[in-house]
Amino acid sequence: MERVVYIITLVDLTLLLVTSVLVLIYLLSIIFIKRFHTTNNILTGNVCLAGILCAIYWVIDTVVTVFYPALLDDYTVLCILSQFFPTMFNCLSIYSLVIITVNRFFTVVYPKKRLFQRKTWCFISIIVQWITAIFVPIPQLVFDCQSCIYKTPLPYWINIYKLLVIVIIPSILQLVFNAMIFSFVRSSSKRVHATTATAIAPVANSKHQHNRDMYLLKHMVFLLAVFVIGWAPNCGTIYSTSFLLNFYSFSVVVIVPSIVNIIFNSLIFMSVRSSTRRIKALTTTTTTTITVTNITHQDKRDTYLLKHIVFMFIVFISGWAPAYGLLY
């Protein structure tokens, strides 16, 4: 049995090291080739750097855990770091992917905003992602210290917290921003189709746009599936029978409706907001007081809709989540 464990460990270490070397080569090409210094490549380089650091940590963690397990008992600091660092480095890698989706959303929806095209915005996003990854594991630090000093098991809610910050919250963010991107692209395709309805080959153009939209949708769904399937097993320590039953109820009553609520409300808001922009575009040639008043009214209406959506979502979560206190 030990021999099998060692073989699996060596395979894992080999894969991690090979992946790190390949990603490092890609990262160095982005750093030293000047024409690659674009916002998209900077974000990709950030993913590479986060992936390398995450892989290096897991190599060290695997070696210590499998070959030198006594070190975790002899050195309290090493024990604490071995519980704190996994969440931090996993979040560092995960949220680097989320930042790409968020930046893509702002670039697609606000193409005329120069701020979202600049490298400054790109670096601000990266800094926010790193700060988030460092601070997310802090709530568990006190319990990590207690567990390592007094040799007590961690509270059960720590594993749930890890599942939330590593899988559920990033998945929701990916889902929401990708849904808004798809909604915006789809509405743009409909507007383009409407303006080219009298063209020579409207059917071919419409089919091309439809295929492009479907490819975008399939790509988003595929990435989300890979994202969830790839990271969920990392939180496998929480999957006991009693927990699964409670968590299933919690998911059905709170998490799944919340995700559906967020997605459809986001699509509603995006549709209303795009309608407001079209109305503004049609009224840019007029400068009457009535036109200005109408535009102001539309902006207030959109803001009110957004506040209402956020308020109802908060009421929904805060109303149902406490009913599942057994999970914590």
UniProtKB/TrEMBL annotation:
The chain crosses the membrane at residues 6-28, 40-60, 80-100, 121-143, 163-185, 215-233, 245-270, 309-327. Pfam families: 7tm_1. Residues 19-269 form the G-protein coupled receptors family 1 profile domain. It comes from the Eukaryota. Belongs to the G-protein coupled receptor 1 family. The keyword Transmembrane helix applies. Keywords: G-protein coupled receptor, Membrane, Receptor, Transducer, Transmembrane, Transmembrane helix. GO terms for cellular component: membrane. One of its GO terms (molecular function) is G protein-coupled receptor activity. It is a multi-pass membrane protein. CDD domains: 7tm_classA_rhodopsin-like. This is G-protein coupled receptors family 1 profile domain-containing protein. Gene3D superfamilies: Rhodopsin 7-helix transmembrane proteins.
